[in-house]
From TrEMBL:
GO terms for molecular function: peroxidase activity. Keywords: Glycosidase, Hydrolase, Membrane, Oxidoreductase, Peroxidase, Signal, Transmembrane, Transmembrane helix. It comes from Aureococcus anophagefferens (Harmful bloom alga). Residues 9-294 form the GH26 domain. This is Peroxidase.
Length: 388
């Protein structure tokens, strides 16, 4: 076999190996206290934990509450976790838009800001009026934007706060007037991260649609130069309508591909037994817990949590698997000789880390984007709340 033919075979194997590189993404886990604790017992602390509260009373921050979907308790979820573990907080505005705009809930807004600031240096990502375009939330665009601005402008005083504008990512409520997500956009300088939800869409064949709307949201935010997170996600129907044996290929892999393609900086995964919670029982959500299924847990650890140490093994495994017939000892020598050279060449061409940082929308906390997610022990806010 000629040297040139051997080199072409090596290149073919190399290209095939590079076609699906191991790429890491930061992970947030939710969405209730005990689901988070069960997950961390198996996998250790995630990059962030999820919790929820309403601007109407803020219950679930420094005291536990349960609406039938598990215990919401932000302080409890953070307790015992490393100082770099962030909080990803879903803040409901539903039914309080007018009160926020009038200033009737200023005490609650001040309490929220005080709570977030007290968590510093932990980072807190606040999804203000999350899933703004979901029909069930009934957020009228103009009223929503006005309420969002009240909270967003106040959170600018907390240097560890990051304001998230989060789309449902299915077909939007018809109140958009045909304008899509832009109808709810609160304005430049008020959004630090965009968020999308990924549920049935990742399967690609759901009657509710595919990832088209999630991509549309990502495109909108790319134009604004705002980074993207997956703000909520779970494989809907796990073990109910979708067998566990096909779940990784059918839902996790498409979601991970979306995360990589759209440069998602945080993947928020809801790891819970949905059917055991009264709010969701009988709706077909299933059981998305990773820690109780060894095959899924192994894939999660290998492909999501720890891809960098595994990247070398995965790379050479793919080289071997993609090897054309007849690729033998000579080609192996070529690979051994040329791969290190190629790696050095690629490293030389790569820009410095600060040059690779994706441009952000200008904001008063822009410097915070260049810090990793780092979030000190939580302290309870002491500001008296408005009754609601």
């Amino acid at each position: 076999m000629s040297s040139s033919r051997s080199w072409r075979r090596c290149c073919a194997a190399l290209v095939a190996a590079l076609a699906s590189p191991a790429v890491g993404v930061r992970v947030a886990i939710g969405q209730d206290l005990w689901s988070i604790r069960n997950y961390t017992a198996r996998f250790g602390a995630p990059d962030a934990v999820m919790s929820y509260a309403s601007i109407g009373n803020l219950s679930g921050l420094w005291s536990p509450t349960d609406y039938g979907s598990g215990v919401e308790y932000a302080d409890g979820a953070l307790a015992g976790l490393p100082a770099h573990t962030a909080l990803q907080l879903g803040l409901e505005l539903k039914g309080h838009e007018a009160a926020l705009s009038r200033g009737d809930l200023d005490a609650n807004v001040d309490a929220l800001v005080a709570y977030v600031a007290a968590l510093a240096p932990r980072h807190v990502l606040v999804r203000i009026g999350y899933e703004f375009d979901m029909p069930g939330n009934l957020y009228v665009p103009e009223a929503y934007k006005s309420a969002y601005r009240v909270v967003a402008e106040a959170l600018a005083d907390a240097p560890n706060a990051f304001r998230v504008w989060h789309s449902w990512s299915f077909a939007p409520w018809e109140a958009d007037g045909g304008r899509g997500v832009g109808a709810w956009y609160p304005g430049d300088g008020l959004v630090d991260y965009c968020g999308v939800s990924v549920f049935q869409q990742a399967y690609g064949d759901s009657e509710l649609g595919d990832l088209t709307y999630a991509h549309a949201m990502a495109d909108f935010c790319d134009e604004k130069r705002i980074p993207l997170i997956i703000a909520e996600s779970t494989p809907f129907g796990a073990g109910v309508v979708e067998p566990y044996g096909t779940l990784w290929a059918r839902w996790f892999e498409p979601t991970l591909r979306f995360a990589i393609a759209r440069r998602v900086v945080l993947w928020s995964y809801i790891d819970c037994d949905w059917d055991s919670q009264p709010m969701w029982r009988g709706m077909g959500w299933g059981d998305s817990r990773l820690e109780v299924r060894d095959a899924l847990a192994a894939k999660w650890e290998y492909d999501v949590l720890d891809p960098y140490p595994n990247a070398t093994r995965a790379f050479f495994s793919r080289v071997s698997a993609a090897r054309p017939p007849g690729l033998g000892r000579r080609e192996a020598v070529y690979l051994a000789c040329y791969l290190p050279v190629l790696g050095l060449f690629i490293a030389f061409l790569m820009p410095a880390p600060e040059e690779r940082t994706r441009p952000r929308a200008a904001s008063s906390i822009d410097e915070g984007h260049r810090r990793p997610f780092v979030l000190a022990s939580p302290e309870a806010a002491t500001v008296k709340l408005s009754d609601s």
